[in-house]
Amino acid sequence: MFRTIGDGPSSWELFLPPEVLRLPGELSRVDAFLDDPVFFAPFAPYFHPVLGRPSTPVECYLRLMFLKFRYRLGFESLCAEVSDSITWRRFCRIGLDGPVPHPTTLMKLTSRCGPEAVAGLNEALWAKAAGQKLLRTGRVRADTTVIAATWRTRPMWGCWPRRWSSWCARCGGCRQRAGPQAPR
C-alpha cells in the first residue's frame, strides 16, 4: 500500500524543549524543499494505492536517501545513525518511539523503484528548482574535451622489462622457487 506521509510526531515530543525540536539550517531548508507532494509522484506507479502491506512513507524514504548521499553512509550505518539522533529522526519524520526502517527495507525499496523513479525525481527537482529560480540554467556549461591516450605510450613503459629482470635477479630466481606450477 502506498503511503506518502507518516504517522506524525509522537506524544513524547510534546515534552521536549523547543531547542531540541529545531532543525539545523541546512536540514531545515532541505526539509522545507522536500515538503512538496510533487516528489511523491515518481514513486506512485510502483505501489498499489490500497492493497498490500503499508510501505515506508515516501517522505521518510526521501529524507533518509538525502542523508545517505549527503553524508556518504551505507544503509546499515544510516539506520544506526538515524536511530541514535533526535535531530535526524525529526528530519526524517520518524517519531521518537517509532521504529527506523530496517536497512534491507531501504535496499528493497531502492531496487524496486529503480532508475526510473530516480529520473522522475530528478525531473521534479529540476522543475521545482528552476521555478524557484534556484538554478541559472542559462549559464550551465559542459566540457566534453576528449584526449586520446594510449597506455603503451607512457614514458615508463620501456623501463618495466629491465626493472622486472633486476628485481628477479635480486630475489634469486623467483620462478625456480615457485616450481613448475608458476604462471608464465
Topology:
Blueprint: H1 18-21, H2 25-33, H3 58-70, H4 75-84, H5 86-91, H6 103-131, H7 160-171, H8 174-178
Question: Could you describe the 3D structure shown?
Answer:
The protein has 184 residues and is mainly α. It folds into 2 domains: 11-136, no CATH class; 154-184, no CATH class. It contains 8 helices and no strands. The longest helix is centred in the middle third of the chain and has 29 residues, at 103-131. The radius of gyration is 27 Å and the shape is extended. The model has no long low-confidence stretch (mean pLDDT 75).
Helicity, as a percent range? 40-55%
Assign the structural class, choosing from mainly alpha, mainly beta, alpha/beta, alpha+beta, or little secondary structure.
mainly alpha
What series of H and E elements makes up the topology? HHHHHHHH
Strand content: under 5%
With helices defined by DSSP (H or I, 4 residues minimum), what is the helix count? Answer: 8
- E-strand count: 0
Reported for the largest beta sheet, the result is:
none
Please tell me the total number of domains.
Answer: 2
The pLDDT mean sits at 75
